[in-house]
Amino acid sequence: MATEENIAAVRPSGIDDKPLWSHVTILAVAGAGGGNRTWVCNYCIKKVVGSYSKVKAHLLKLPNQGVVACKSVTREMLQQIKQEHDQVETRKSQEEYRKKQKAEYLSLPEGSDLLQHKKRKGKEVGALEKSFNISQREKADKECARMF
User: By the 8 A CB rule, do 17 and 52 touch?
Assistant: First the structure.
C-alpha cells in the first residue's frame, strides 16, 4: 500500500468537484496523461486502473461501465455517496449557469452610440428594402393572416 505522503502527492487537484475520490485510495497516476489512475476501493479492496468515471460506476453501482459494482457498499452508504455526488453536480451546474448568464450579459458604457436608436426621416426606403420588396411582403402577410 502507498504511504500517506505518496497518496497526497498523487491525489487529484480537483478533488472538491469530484468527491468520490475520497472513497478510494490512489496508488499511481498513469504517465500517458488523461485521468487514469490506479486505485483501490476503500470498502471492497478491489484494485482498478481507470478514471473518475470508473470510481463513480464502481461506488454508485452503475451497470455497463467496464467495472464491477462494489459489493461492500450498503444501501445507506449508497444513498450517502449519491447525495455527495449529486450535491457537487448541482453546484457545478449552477456555477456553469452563472458563468453562462454572466457571459450573455452585456453592459454598454455610458454615452455609447449603441444605446441611441437612429431615426429615419420620412419614409426613405433603402436598397435592402427595395431588393426584398419588404412593403409588398408585409401586405401579403397581413392578407394571409386574415384568412385564418
Answer: no
The model's pTM: 0.56
CA distances from 96 to 16, 20, 92, 93 (A): 15, 21, 6, 5
Question: Do residues 88 and 15 lie in contact, with contact meaning Cβ atoms separated by under 8 Å?
Answer: no
Q: Are 67 and 50 in contact (CB under 8 A)?
A: yes
26, β-bridge pairs:
39
Within 16-145, strands assigned E span: 24-29, 37-41, 47-50
Distance separating alpha carbons of residues 90 and 19, to the nearest angstrom: 13
How big, in percent rounded to 5, are the helix, strand and coil portions of the chain?
50, 10, 40
Reported as a single tens digit per residue, the pLDDT across 71-104 is 988 899 999 999 999 998 999 899 888 888 776 6
Residue indicated by cell numbers 467495472? 67
Cβ proximity of 54 and 34 under 8 Å = no
Place of cell 450498503: 74
Burial of 65 (0-12, 13-18, 19+ CB in 10 A): middle
